[in-house]
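Sharing a chain and its predicted structure for anyone who wants a worked example. Both blocks are below, sequence first, tokens second.
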Amino acid sequence: MSPLPIELFGHRVIAKIGVGAASEVFVVQDIKTKQVWALKHVVRIDDKSDRFIDQVEQEYAIGSKLQHQNIRGIHKILRIKKSLKVTEIALLMELIDADTLDIRKPKNILAATELLSQIAFGLDHMNSRGFVHGDIKPINVMVTEGEKVKIIDLGQACTMNEVKKRIQGTPGYIAPEQGHLQPITAQTDVYNFGAMMYLVLGGQIIPTVIPPQTGTSSSTPINPNMLQLPVPLHKKTPSIPEELGNLVQECIQILPQDRVQDMGQVAKRLELIAAGLSGSRLGMAVLAG
């Protein structure tokens, strides 16, 4: 294990709290102001490191334009350059005392629905500003002891309708259009979110959409028969309300135009379902997994 750095970009390092593919996240304190932050740090090792540096740049470019209680705040980007090349980069972020959703799992249907509603409102804000998260999943959602949600990790986020040069996404959550290098839209977040709902509520990951063969054009139509949809949650688990199972199913349709058309609609429907479950025995039903 590498020793903890004493200082990074004029900030005293207090603790390491996370490790990514090419990044480390620390708790730091500004030496001058004494403000405490989370700091994501990436060092350029070779040419392969450039994409990780680019992801930090992208996270700042998008995150700095978002202001929502359910999205982690992004404060500042810091760079070290040598010969005009960024060799080290850091992102100062809101420090959150919380665990990720895969660790702090909701105990019952009502708690899950309330958490999911918060995530949906956060994604709707992001989409309303012209951006798509593109990688929503339990480890990219933090939940505090007070059951408040913060969406994190915008490294794969992009502008609405962007066509990416390479496939980005996570098996079990990736939308068909992501696998086919087609435009990323609000409906992409709807699919990712629906896949996450299926896991949170049903304890299972849905089958991954098989991406096209190498060299397939991004204009290749998506075949709606390419993947069989999973059994609706309310038909697998009687304690799941039918309206909740139907909402999940409407989010994970293969074709974007067949899904719920925006995260705002998803959020409002979840809010109504949660209100109906509040105080009911059904809402207290324990979740699978």
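Comments welcome. DSSP finds seven helices and eleven strands in the chain.
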